[in-house]
Amino acid sequence: MQIKYDSIAHLIEAAQEAGQPLSALVLEQQAQQTERSSQELYQEMERMYHVMKESAQEGMKEGLRSTSGLTGGSALKMQQAVEKGNTLCGRIFSGALARALAVSEWNAAMGRIVASPTAGSCGILPAALLTIEESRSIPERDCVMALFTASAVGMVIAQNACIAGAQGGCQAECGSASAMAAAALVELCGGGPEQIGHAVAIALKNVLGLVCDPVAGLVEIPCIKRNASGVANAFVAAELALAGIESAIPPDEVILAMKRVGDAMSPALRETAEGGLAATPTAQKLYQQVFGNSEDGKGCGGCRACH
Amino acid sequence: MNVFDIVGPVMIGPSSSHTAGAARIGRVASKLLGNPAVRAEIVLHGSFAKTYKGHGTDKALIAGIMGMEPDDSRLRESPRLAKEQGLEVSISTDTIEDAHPNTARITLTDAKGKQICVQGASVGGGNILITKVDGMDVAISGQHTTLVAVHKDAPGVIAAVTDYMSGLGINICNFRLSRSQKGGTAVMTIEVDGNLEESANEDIQKLPNVIRSTLIQLN
Q1: Cβ pairs A/B, distance under 8 A
Q2: E-only strand ranges, B1-87
Q3: Test the B interface: residue of A27, A67, A122, A159 with most B CBs within 10 Å
């Protein structure tokens, strides 16, 4: 089976023709491309999933703070609310928010994570998969396979637009992660290839134009909370697509639109920490708090790294 | 591109460029030294200089110099581990002319006093490019098995090295030569497809006019 990653439309068509889940096609094609066995590739992806699981647990531990000292502890708060049954949206949805925060906060605390597709957006895909594995008692094997579907979507986006905040803003980073997670959720919940396409389109459309404006240039504020909103967006897109709701604009056109929006974005809004939230007075204060006034790198900036 | 370029790598956070890439730069520098370093002088430039504390860039570089991979969870403890192992580290910031914003210059010294100065940039997504070794231009991405040979600038040295490789059926995918001056010291960077054995590196070191060569294997 020859499949290419130049369009979502092509992936959908290939899966429909083969009458197989997209994940199975991708695994088979990747084995051919990399001249490795399917078993070997599966095992490597399984390792990714296990690291994701571990990072979601580690990130909920009490007392977790980031290296800068700016963030930490919100995953635990969210999880406590879930356990008390004290949430607006119920256990599944709020559990996903807690996991996205956990992986993201663990990343900011120099924990071990899987870039998916980037470190800044590393909470979204694990949160979606771990939550659906638990809530629907889906076998772990299926979740690992769904990572191949997510990767295929990510490859198309990377090829036709970009997945880095420095290039396309947060829409490219958390937006891509969201689209990948939505695709994985649809496949795991029994949606067909066409529904996967609609979920990808909807997820990206919902965050089109989102800028990358990290406070003090760190992968923390607002990145951690955007991981929570990224997984929420993945659930929105998957839920809509699974209900049969279609995206009026096809996924490949949405990806192209995302690229063009990214190209039109001022460099100040693409990870340079010069615009958006990073340019607010509070952000400036936080910058001073972490790095101090001197730029010579000497002296303690109060980053708490030594605590 | 393959699936693990999208889902992966496994890494210590928070930033693929400022943390994972930094660890890789440190690791290649230590491989180029060839022996464990006892002293490391690190100069940070650009975004590395401005934000290294919050991203743990310093810890990642030190970890890499100690031979750790970007996913080694001891990475965040690296300054303490370095002290315990007798690796003395100094970190400063400076402007390095015409350098990528995420650039580090690392001078390593081993127990016998052998020294190497390596300059590298983290170019995004954890990918790196080592651009200078001892002031001479190189281009090491760390994505291919790479041979870095320091040699006397004399006719036939390149041919001898590449002939030797071709005899092994090795295909070169990237070649770069740089020299200090005519007839002086030169360095060739050769990236190859597939693998090259350490024994091949030993043979290349014995070729006439080759001063020393280092093999950087993947992983």
Answers
A1: 152
A2: 10-12, 37-45
A3: A67
Pairing of strands B88-93, B37-45: parallel
- Which CATH code fits A8-291? 1.10.4100
The dihedral over CA atoms of A10, A48, A98, A71, expressed in degrees to the nearest 10, equals: -110
| Cα–Cα distance measured from residue A28 to residue A199, given in angstroms and rounded to the nearest whole number | 23
Nearest to B4 by CA among A56, A182, A48: A48
pLDDT at A33: 87
Measured between CB atoms, does B159 come within 8 Å of chain A?
no
Residue A34, pLDDT score: 84
**Residue-wise burial string across A259-273, b where 16 or more C-beta atoms lie within 10 A, e elsewhere:** bebbeebeeebbbbb
- In this complex, the residue of B6, B54, B124 whose CB is nearest that of residue A68 is B54
A257-292 residue pLDDT tens = 999 999 999 999 998 889 999 999 999 999 999 988
Looking at CA atoms only, how far is residue A88 from chain B in angstroms? 30
Q: pLDDT tens digits, residue range A5-64? A: 999 999 999 999 999 999 999 999 999 988 889 999 999 999 999 999 999 999 999 999
Sequence ranges of chain B with CATH classification 3.30.70.260: 145-216
Instruction: Answer whether B81's CB lies under 8 Å from B89's CB.
Output: no
Q: How far is it, in rounded angstroms, from Cα A160 to Cα A140? A: 31
Question: B3-134 adopts what CATH topology?
Answer: 60s Ribosomal Protein L30; Chain: A; (3.30.1330)
pLDDT value at A297 more than 60: no
Q: Residue range B78-106: average pLDDT?
A: 95
Mutate which: B1, B44, B53, vs A, most A CBs within 10 A: B53
CATH class of B145-216: alpha beta
| B78 token code pair | 């690296």
**Mean pLDDT estimate for chain B:** 93
Tell me how far CA of residue A237 lies from CA of A22, A103, A127, A242, B45, in angstroms.
18, 21, 15, 9, 42
Residue of A nearest to B72 (CA): A112
Query: Domain extents for chain A?
Result: 8-291
